[in-house]
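Purpose: get a first structural picture of the assembly so the mutagenesis plan has something to point at.
Setup: four entries, given in the order below. No constraints added.
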Amino acid sequence: MSINLQGIINLGEREDYIRELTMNRPLATIPFAGRYRLIDFTLSNMVNSGIDSISLIVKNKFHSLNDHIGPGKDWDLDRKTGGLRILYPDMQPDLNLISVGDIPVVRSNLSHFSSIKKDYILLTRSNYIGNINYRPAFEEHVKKGSDITILTRHIRNGRARVELLGMDIVQKRNNSYTIGRNLGNQNDFDLSIEMFIMKKSVFLRIIHDAIEEGAEAFLKKAIISRLGEYKVSTYTIEDDILPIHSIQQYYNASLAILDPAYAEYLFYKHGKIYTKAKDAPSTLYAAGSEVNHSLIANGCVIEGTVENSIIFRDVHIGRGAVVRNSIVFQDTDISTGANLNYCIVDKFVHVGKGKVLMGDGGLPYVIKKGVSIR
Amino acid sequence: MSINLQGIINLGEREDYIRELTMNRPLATIPFAGRYRLIDFTLSNMVNSGIDSISLIVKNKFHSLNDHIGPGKDWDLDRKTGGLRILYPDMQPDLNLISVGDIPVVRSNLSHFSSIKKDYILLTRSNYIGNINYRPAFEEHVKKGSDITILTRHIRNGRARVELLGMDIVQKRNNSYTIGRNLGNQNDFDLSIEMFIMKKSVFLRIIHDAIEEGAEAFLKKAIISRLGEYKVSTYTIEDDILPIHSIQQYYNASLAILDPAYAEYLFYKHGKIYTKAKDAPSTLYAAGSEVNHSLIANGCVIEGTVENSIIFRDVHIGRGAVVRNSIVFQDTDISTGANLNYCIVDKFVHVGKGKVLMGDGGLPYVIKKGVSIR
Amino acid sequence: MIHSKVVAMILAGGQGSRLKNLTRKTAKPAVHFGGKYRIIDFTLSNCANSGIHSVGILTQYQPLALNTHIGTGVPWDLDRRSGGVEVLPPYMSTEGGRWYAGTANAIYENIDFIDLHDPEYVLILSGDHIYKMDYREMISFHRSTNADVTVSVIEVPWEEASRFGILNTKDDDVIYEFDEKPAEPKNNLASMGIYVFNWKLLRRYLREDHKNKDSTHDFGADIIPEILRKGHRMMAYRFRGYWKDVGTVESYWEAHMDLLDPNNELRLYDDDWKIYTKNLDAPPHYISAEGHVENSLLNEGCVVYGTVRNSILSTSSVIEKGAVVEDSIILPYAVVGKNAVLKKTIVLSHHKVAEGEALGSDDTITFAGTHDMGIL
Amino acid sequence: MIHSKVVAMILAGGQGSRLKNLTRKTAKPAVHFGGKYRIIDFTLSNCANSGIHSVGILTQYQPLALNTHIGTGVPWDLDRRSGGVEVLPPYMSTEGGRWYAGTANAIYENIDFIDLHDPEYVLILSGDHIYKMDYREMISFHRSTNADVTVSVIEVPWEEASRFGILNTKDDDVIYEFDEKPAEPKNNLASMGIYVFNWKLLRRYLREDHKNKDSTHDFGADIIPEILRKGHRMMAYRFRGYWKDVGTVESYWEAHMDLLDPNNELRLYDDDWKIYTKNLDAPPHYISAEGHVENSLLNEGCVVYGTVRNSILSTSSVIEKGAVVEDSIILPYAVVGKNAVLKKTIVLSHHKVAEGEALGSDDTITFAGTHDMGIL
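Result (structure tokens, whole complex):
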């Protein structure tokens, strides 16, 4: 039976971190883990937590998202009531303008938010990877009677971790919570993972206030600056969660999946991760292929060597080709004798015979979608 | 078995004719005939002709369309391959601008058009009402080997018909076709109903040329100005087709359905007209109600008098209320003793007790969505 | 709040021969009802509105109309990736083929299906009752009273109690005895044939019952008494509201007349608990200048040139000029010819009443048509 | 170009006992095949790719796995408002219940279902063959040759012809005789059990056949010979390409080995004629640092710590450290324990081969596991 919680996934946030992979797609549809897109994790976590009504706030680059999600059948969200609802910005017929931030998209869809049938909402983004059960946090929120619950991860020995710089941290002062930026001065702290559970009434009041006051361009900022007005709690998520805020974090999170224990957690713990069905056939390992410590999707033909890498669907690795420490997106062809190390190869790339491409673990070499290297 | 023809419905055309009903909705979703929206007729005609892959070019006011169409199940268009695909304009992340005309939307979706699997396309709009079988025109197009077939209606004694002024007419000069505007000078002529069957390759060449040359803002104009370059035929549609270009045409077309012979044609001839299921219960006629020559949708409670009118779903006509020569959209309440004549009442209107609203057959009185007249 | 998996199993196997011409070629749950529905729509919509997304329908009798009606389950939002609505007919195994021998046997034969969903509770429903019920409330009650089994009951007038299966309860609604059509009823709580079982418990009793050669494999006659005998906690859940078994032609007709009362308790105009059905894609109905309709229900696709009083016209039925229809039920796509006069008549779907024909009387319910194919 | 309505009827009723452990608890069409498919996926995908959207599946034997697999038909885009895929089990009518008595009888019992779609042609298919075929071409051939019946045939080696149902044809491929397993074949065109019938004609012959007490109600044995006897025009449609009846354990295993040939004629990597199946939502497969795989097919969810040669690993199967798998088929969710050694073995789904166990030999095909439940 379904849960009294509406999912809202905000894709309208700033996403200029990973420009190399977001030229033609939003952050939400960056390919991940051999057959998924980033948003699959958030969508599946919601569905597996019993959420059957989800709104998606989008601002631009709709095509990639529409392509991936279609009518929503793969997540069982093609429903008459509830299901998945994509909230587009409104283009005024006369002005043909939309402005900065995600608040204008929220404004264009006010009637949708008012018509939500659930009493609580869960607001998230699409760029945190994990297998998360939202139920305990939700139950705690209801039990405590909070207006807003900020979901957090507790970080120990965080001072040394460069990758956490600039991320949101939660602090409690004078009995009220604030969310600011991590400048690396603290060692033990609560990281905000940009997920909030709220009473629907509170969410509606915040967006109405934000639109009327006109001070903020972004929804997250609108919430943060009003925390003082509400009864706020935090809830620490114990599940492992990897933020994807940079190409480096993307690369590291990808390779993390080669740890079978982590993969077991990520793909199965609270339920499966769903994605668009592609109906790819089995992967064929030719005699003479050599694959070690790698994650390989269906539909590939592997004739060469693959090590410590992630290979997406319908990739061909030619005879004698060597792919190491790399991530190869779907429908790419690595020709005979080519040699790749520390590369992220986008979709529909052709790497010609004998070509050598070497990046670095600290700065992987990104080969853009559709490029042909002859 | 499916037909080798892709439907393309262009909702990006100018639509400033019926402002009263298009404040919050595109022309395509204007309610019509008691339970439909205008686009239902085009969509259903395509589906009934065997077209199973349809692209919808939209420019703005997405919400109403998304609400109505959802995942497309009501038209059996929620398909893995083919089905309904909505083509949105691209909003450049930096510019956040879209420009005049529908060509920019076409440009944003070039890759979609290139990937069409069918060899022929049928380009239409949503504001022509009829029950049309596209197969004969398509078969003729293929048999003749035409590049472009312009679908037409032949008009006799058209000089006197004011409602046809300004509409597109097709003429043949020096063996080539032109499409221009009807200024009322001709008596017998071929009206273009803004429907074109083309080879996909021709369609792709026209849109590429139009984008490269940059001369036109609208797709229709781009086609018309290039007719001379292609092998063009016309095909006369024999089925009755009513254009909806003005509030007057809308009103007349609505009342035309009260002729049972016309209704029999419009709702059944080549297949049924599909629309979004609303699951409204039966309509209850109370003792003392008096309904004559009217079309009434489900879910209504009729306690008063209705004559020569169209009543949409979930309308309440109170005791002693009189509705004549009017069109009442869904979820509207006409209270006890109110009296309406020649009105078009939009959704969610409340007409208070004893109120009298009188329009004229030549200029129906439009009461806007959500208005409450106390 | 707590996530609990519930599977609903709808018993829809009966032939329903007391519905006479209506069920000659159609399973009872697929019989047209209320102008636009079929009987099973009420139970299916109750499931959908209660948030129950795994539903099995047990049927073995003329299932074509039922299958065609249910399709993939779209009208009830039950076209699910996992779960959803599934029709479960009898099948052959290595031991040969077996038809369902009783209500309990039908569930027994589908233990594998239920296990697939690994539910905590199984809700047993009947496909031939007209009512609106939020099963969530019954399940909450079941859970909060720590019951092993909960039976939904409705208070019936004491003088009618001997026509029902009566549940005898203690003061706290704990059931201690099941009394099938008692000559001298000790209670007036009638079983509605709606049960919540803890699945593990039911599973065990079904397996035992299957081995018992003396059993008729029926819930009311065998399973419920046996569970009571073993001392499990069985609760009576009191339902208040409209509930009608439309198992006879008389009750079928009465239930229709109930709908004409604008204040009837079924409240079909309530948007918060819609009854869903297959959309037949018919246009709004049309009443001509000479047509006259009063105290009646009309549906999409109807065309009325004659007079209709105190009647229900189903989808796409036609009343021709001069015809008079009173106290009658016209099923889908039926036609009442010119100047025909009907009184208290059920016109079967697609049947045409001939021009000038006069049918029916105040005394009894008359059928026009010999059998209803059920398929549109 | 011309719109013609075709209904495909897939005969999926057989128990398939020659598949032994594979079909003990599962209908043959639902048997796992090729690492990620079930046998019926090939026929269903052929229908979908041929643009045939009305498909009936006739089944009566252990249908749970088949039903669960097909669901609402989404993988094949057959979840349609009208038409789509429907499983058609036997049912009861006023005359009582009847199990399907033969292939023709199964179609006879579902005449109402076919009539609902009012088709011009009915395509009779078998649910247990592995092949890719564009039925549109066969129907075009049927239409352009003005045939009443068209039978799809494949050329078999002359020396094997006596193992098949052989169609004797004149020079223009007009069939004049059907020869079931002829001792001395006159022809080498074997029937593939795929028929196109003009529906009106077939309907008539099915009704006559039903009345005939001497008939076995089988297409090959009764309907086809009778239609030929009456002199109707029956054409042989020559199919070229991969086609395999996987009705025995040997042919099942051989068909798998065929898949390992990168140039096999089935061409599963062809994007223009995909074989669709239910998505099991497993992640990509993982090969560990010590794992070794050669000349094998792997699928989503597999985890390999051991050595795999010349084998097919189905979805989510696991090969533990030190295990060696050769010439084998591992069905979904099976586990091959540490240091186990398999040769020419079929490991049934969910079965676990114990640590260190050695199974199989070059000579014969060995099963690990007693029966396959078929359900995932």
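The first helix of chain A runs from residue 38 to 48.
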